[in-house]
Amino acid sequence: MNIPLNSVGVPVVQSGPTYRCFECGKPTKFRETFGKFLANPRNPSPLDKWADHIWYMTNVEPERCHCPKRVARLGDSITVLNLSGDRDLPNYDERLRHNIAEVKESLTRIMMCVPEHERKQDEATRLVYGLWQGDLTPPVAIEAIRALISNQTLPDAAAFLLHRAPVRVEIDLSV
Ligand SMILES: [Zn+2]
After folding, report:
1. Which residues surround ligand 1, an ion (CB under 5 A)?
2. Which of 21, 31, 46, 87 has the fewest C-beta atoms lying within 10 Å of its C-beta?
3. Cα distance between residue 76 and residue 49, in whole Å
4. pLDDT (tens digit, 9 = 90+) per residue, 158-175?
């Protein structure tokens, strides 16, 4: 898959299992990479429908940077998402239309760059990278692999890693 690079040499769509900041290229740790957009039930918005696909990257010391971190996400694939605030577009309806169009455009970019079956990593990949990045200790990783093979309950740390991404890998953009 040949995904174009942006001006700092980061692919415009990243599917992990390691990620880099789209603005400065600093690495982000697998487990700390995402935080999900939270819809406000007291202030519902048509954008809430897309909340499952609006995420924020974070990174950790010593790689911390202060770049904009909002991304669109489909499965484990992410790309930059440029939403406008009320300073950029004071008119609510106009802002909403613009932002929904931005979400759709970003998700379209992911769909064009990454085939559906490549938008999510399998469990073995996550365990190996989790171990490599220090999110799992070797004994926990071994226990998790044994649990996967024998279809038994995963250790908590591994369960977190394997189930951290319930995001769908496909979406209908026509609605
Ligand atoms: Zn950065």
Report:
1. 21, 23-24, 26, 65, 67
2. 87
3. 19
4. 877 776 656 788 888 887
CA of 15 to the centre of ligand 1 (A): 17
Secondary structure of residue 108 in the 3-state scheme: helix
Residue pair 101/50 in contact (Cβ under 8 Å)? The answer is: no
Q: pLDDT (tens digit, 9 = 90+) per residue, 88-122? A: 999 999 999 999 999 999 999 999 999 999 998 88
Distance 68 CA to ligand 1 centre (A): 7
**Other Cβ atoms within 10 Å of 67 Cβ, number:** 13
36 three-class SS: strand
pLDDT at 60 over 80: no
Q: Is the peptide bond before 155 cis (omega within 30 degrees of 0)?
A: no
Give residue 10 CA to ligand 1 midpoint distance, Å.
11
Q: What is the mean pLDDT of residues 40-60?
A: 87
